[in-house]
Design a protein that fits this description.
Elements (H helix, E strand, L loop, with lengths): L1 H32 E3 L9 E2 L2 H7 L5 H31 L6 H8 L7 H15 L5 H25 L3 H9 L4 H30 L2 H6 L7 H10 L3 H25 L2 H5 L3
Length: 267
């Protein structure tokens, strides 16, 4: 009896968890293939891919917006890694005093409401002419991207065995050669994971792009928001699924690069 009750509880918990995860996704898929769907009907009245054609037609803004999103995300990754690699090395090797305090300060952008932060950034960018530019949007995306990149880079460098670097130095390798041939290759999986996280964060970012980029810079999340606001849920669902594909693909890659030893070094 107790065993059956235990199985029932576990099955119920798994069922609720599965519904919480896959329920919204199922609703998204239904909206993406619905042509006519309105209250009080529980399911679409007619199905089809008409709205997929609307999104993917040559004159649609979706392709240009997707290209802009990918361009901004790629530049954001480059900017974040250029800053995060030296910072992560110094923090991971405990070369800086007050390491814990520095890591805490890096987390501060996550501690404040995004709308308030982006509103003030937009005001400052307007004064210096960065509003409505890709450079301005990249800088905004880098604010949150650096948090991810620095923390993961610090963990990646902390997981590198110092003895391997000392062995390279003992056989005559210079500090630069040791860094390029030993340290960076060993930290590469963690840095790759950091790059993927930053790319996904930038690709899905809406609030910062809305306050700093609109109306001159249009990304795919902005297209999705505009479609939702106008009640065109089919277009919004299709664009959401387009954004979902790289997220799932990259998260599967991240699973290969992050291991428990590296995660234990975070913080």
């Amino acid at each position: 009896m107790k065993a059956a009750l235990g199985w029932l509880c576990r099955g119920s918990a798994l069922g609720i968890l599965a519904f919480a995860i896959f329920g919204p996704l199922a609703n998204l898929v239904l909206w993406a293939v619905a042509i006519r769907w309105y209250f009080p009907h529980k399911f679409p009245l007619t199905y089809g891919f008409r709205y997929w054609g609307e999104v993917f037609k040559p004159t649609s803004d979706a392709f240009a917006s997707l290209g802009t999103s990918v361009l901004i995300a790629a530049i954001t990754v480059l900017v974040c890694l250029l800053l995060a690699i030296p910072a992560g090395y110094a923090l991971g090797r405990r070369l800086l005093p007050g390491r814990g305090l520095i890591l805490l300060i890096i987390l501060l952008p996550q501690a404040f409401p995004s709308v308030a932060v982006y509103l003030n950034i937009a005001r400052l960018f307007y004064m210096v002419g960065l509003n409505g530019t890709i450079a301005g949007v990249v800088l905004v995306h880098a604010v949150h991207g650096l948090v991810i990149a620095v923390w993961i880079a610090a963990a990646a460098f902390a997981a590198v065995d110092v003895e391997l670097e000392l062995a390279a130095r003992n056989i005559g390798a210079s500090a630069l050669r040791t860094a390029l041939t030993v340290t960076l290759p060993l930290a590469a999986p963690g840095l790759t994971a950091a790059a993927i996280f930053v790319f996904l964060e930038s690709l899905d970012e809406f609030t910062g792009t809305y306050f700093v980029g609109v109306p001159d810079v249009t990304t795919l999340p902005l297209i999705m928001f505009t479609a939702s606001l106008s009640g065109n849920y089919q277009i919004a669902a299709v664009t959401a699924l387009i954004l979902l594909v790289p997220s799932i693909a990259f998260m599967l890659l991240i699973e290969r690069f992050l291991n428990t030893e590296m995660l234990a070094k975070v913080g």
